[in-house]
Amino acid sequence: MKLYNSYTQMIEELKPIEEGKVSMYVCGPTVYNYPHIGNVRPIIVFDTLKKTLEAQGMDVLYASNYTDVDDKIINTAIEKGVSEQEITTQFIEAYDQTRADLNADQPDVAPKVTETMDAIIRFIDQLIQKGAAYQVDGDVYYRVDSNSLYGELSHQKVEDLMVGARIDENTKKENPLDFTLWKATDRGIQWDSPWSKGRPGWHTECVVMINDVFQKPLIDIHGGGLDLKFPHHENEIAQCESLHHTRLANMWVHNGMINIDGIKMSKSLGNVWWAKDLIAMYGGNVIRWVMISTHYRAPLNLNEKAFESAQKELAKIENAYRQGQVKVQIANEEEEPKELDQTLWNPFIEALNDDLNTPNAITALLECVKKINQLQRQKEIDVKALNDALFTLEKMLTVLGIKLPTIHLSQEDKELYRSWRNAVQEKDFEHADLYRARLQEQGIL
Which pTM value belongs to this model? Predict the structure, then answer.
């Protein structure tokens, strides 16, 4: 499989550190509100990547964290008069439900910052001992000047960043680019540390959770939205370079951002779309189809037309799949063994192996649907070929995370179907309409 590596700015072959196994970490949400549609894109992108790798026999260990310590969480808890834990528990459950509604697997490991605090404090202490961090009045900062490689992910030079840096009123810092590893505070949830009562900085948390989950300083893939590339992922790499002399991940994979009707989604503009509302309106399949219809690195423009178009396309696929299942079961009293149709499957998986090109994979899937329809129109149906094409379509849909209902015909259903077909052939339209209505009621037609 080849992926675009933001670190090298090249499409590269994925070469797992451990043969046959892939370690993947994706930055998760700060849980103080319900997931919006922007949060949904990385969920779908990296779930699809995981499913693609697994479809080819790879063993994927996928971790995605929950940031359950943050000023926004504290502010929300104070505003609602509840504890931070009540807020984070509520919205972690909301995220888990959204994943399930989008047919996305839950991460194999979902670490929380609050459960990783001892390791975070040890990590910061090690950075201080290395001279890569310093403490002032209970706060701890990363010393950017200690790392000559700083800016390697975003391909920016420190001098250029300094020119563009805002005037920083924090005179405690040696350098305006230095970032917080530990923040002394008496507001909200806090922990004891060698420096003060406080809580960690955001950029440190993910590095430590990666080390903690995978038990190694270098993993195969680190993913997230393009907005995290700088400074968050840059700062993760800097800390890992200082302590472990690695860039934390061999491949850095970023998904593009989302626009609403051509305008960047922003709370300040009031154009935030909540995932739960869209799922209630259109269903998880449609949301997922819209997301994968555009390449993951490209900006994604959402509007009502995009969702309606996805509904129509999925309806055609479901119709072909349903009718194909019926035809196979009517023709076969006993279920025949199924095999992948390689002429259909190969273009599909090759598209996904080419930097997760889901639009081209969809094109290959639609060719499979076309073949299913063609096979059904034959006077003498090639049941084996139809069965294999249906099985291939099922595998494709599984990889893309689309769930369609399967049909299991009873003997009574088969007899009703045959009665309908006979009535049609005999032009007994009165009975044909009655049989058809019953079949439709049962979801067979």
Answer: 0.94
